[in-house]
Amino acid sequence: MKEFFKVKSLDQVLEYASGFPHTGTEEIPLSDTLGRILAKDIVSDVDLPDFMRATMDGYAVRASSTFGASEANPAYLNIRGAVYMGQSPDFSIGPGECARISTGGMVPPGADSVIMIEHTEAMDDTTIEVFRSVAPGQHMIEIGEDFKNEEIILSRGQKLRPQETGLLAAFGKQRAEVFKKPVIGIISTGDEVVPIEKSPGSGQIRDINTHTLSALVREAGAIPLVFGIVQDDYDMLFEKCSQALSQSDMVLISGGSSVGVRDFTIEVLSALPESDILVHGISISPGKPTILAKVRNKAFWGLPGHVVSAMVVFSIVVRPFIEHICGLGHKKEIRVPALLSRNVSSAQGRADYVRVRLIEKDGVLRAEPILGKSGLLNTIIKADGLIEIGINTEGLDKDTKVFVIIL
Ligand SMILES: Nc1nc2c(c(=O)[nH]1)N[C@H]1C(S)=C(S)[C@@H](COP(=O)(O)OP(=O)(O)OC[C@H]3O[C@@H](n4cnc5c(N)ncnc54)[C@H](O)[C@@H]3O)O[C@H]1N2
Ligand code: MOO
């Protein structure tokens, strides 16, 4: 007699993530850092900028020399010299003096602001008229205004976006220490599943899950390692899982996660060395027959065979585990608020993840549910995202504000 599901809540399942170790770390060139997770804090070794920098073309001045200046009553300033780009000026600015400066030039000592060229008029080579006053600090960047010396500028666990790459560049960091991308083994199971290059015979289906899951793994910042299709055979699945265990940091097995006569995944996972079945069944839909085992400190997942179910389970459950082992520290998940376009019902006792399409009309964003069986691809092709209908909710009414998880 097969064991039936002992369903756990999504929150209970997600708590297991912290029990899996991070991948090791590696040093990579700056050009490869996009999307990678920083493995250690980075502390600045200089002020940024480390000189006062003009942000406008004009004249460096003491702000006090311009106070009260107007079109009717201009201030007159002596031109002390010109600042050359990329060089420190060898003079300082006193009261009643100014220096020609370009955007990005070093504000000379004694000056504390820059007046825009538009607000001045050169009378001759030595004197300008100033028609506006400037405030101290105006049109220039102070030393350390961007980042201070010895400040933590980037933290361990942070995902590196183009702007963080720019910051590393600004501090001359040519390499960065990041967490290694985990290798995620992917196994498809089922006698009816054939490789995509084959024409499926009667009752057969092409292997879609290998490809959707590989793409999802890549999107999550990891490396997919495809182990192909395994027939519904205990020994073959055991053999393939043992191979995947030695070559991967995590393994996704799709199909055979349910309780049918041919569903060997749970038996094989139980028989692997140092294995502990943590989860067999999650109170979510789609995705109830999901298995999680800890095998030699690695997560082995049995995902439902249905294409949409496998994708939803990946997005809601597996992805946070990958992000955890990748070392991602603080994730800012942005969900898009929208109004539900119609009533949606849901069973109590499970959290439903409903595919929705986003439609904007007259400045209002609406989430339109796309209902359909989890074995149908078209529902997820049309969808922009998912909404969650909580475990204790019987459904949501039209016009309820929902937060869409973008797919
Ligand atoms: N008595 C019960 N039966 C089922 C239950 C249940 O609670 N009690 N749950 C149902 C749900 S929900 C799902 S989801 C499926 C999951 O079953 P399995 O994980 O065992 O998946 P399979 O039976 O192997 O396959 C389901 C479906 O997906 C197709 N498939 C499988 N692999 C692929 C692939 N790589 N590419 C494309 N399509 C694939 C497979 O042919 C089946 O049609 O169990 C229900 N049953
Ligand atoms: O949970 Mo199944 O995963 O609904 O289709």
Structural class: alpha/beta
Q: Quick one: CATH class of the largest domain? A: Alpha Beta
Number of strand segments = 28
- Strand fraction equals 25-35%
The total tally of domains equals 4
Mind summarizing the main beta sheet? 6 strands, mixed
Are any ligands bound, and if so which?
Answer: ligand LQZAQKY5, molybdate ion
Strand line-up across the major sheet: 7-4-6-5-9-8
Radius of gyration computed on alpha carbons: 31 Å
**pLDDT below 50 for ≥5 consecutive residues: which ranges?**
none
State the share of residues found in helices, binned by percent.
Answer: 10-25%
CATH topology of the largest domain: Molybdenum Cofactor Biosythetic Enzyme, Chain A
GO biological process, one term: Mo-molybdopterin cofactor biosynthetic process
Enzyme class: transferase
GO molecular function: metal ion binding; molybdopterin molybdotransferase activity
EC number: 2.10.1.1
Write a concise keyword list for the protein shown above.
407 residues; alpha/beta; Molybdenum Cofactor Biosythetic Enzyme, Chain A; Molybdopterin biosynthesis moea protein, domain 2; Molybdopterin biosynthesis moeA protein, domain 3; 6-stranded mixed β-sheet; 7 helices; 17% helix; elongated; binds ligand LQZAQKY5; binds molybdate ion; MoeA-like; molybdenum cofactor biosynthesis; MoeA_C_domain_IV; MoeA_C_domain_IV_sf
Task: Summarize the structure in short.
By secondary structure, the protein is an alpha/beta fold. 17% of the residues lie in helices and 31% in strands. It has 4 domains: 10-24 and 180-325, Molybdenum Cofactor Biosythetic Enzyme, Chain A; 28-47 and 154-178, Molybdopterin biosynthesis moea protein, domain 2; 53-141, Molybdopterin biosynthesis moeA protein, domain 3 (Beta Complex); 335-406, Beta-clip (Beta Barrel), CATH 2.40.340.10.
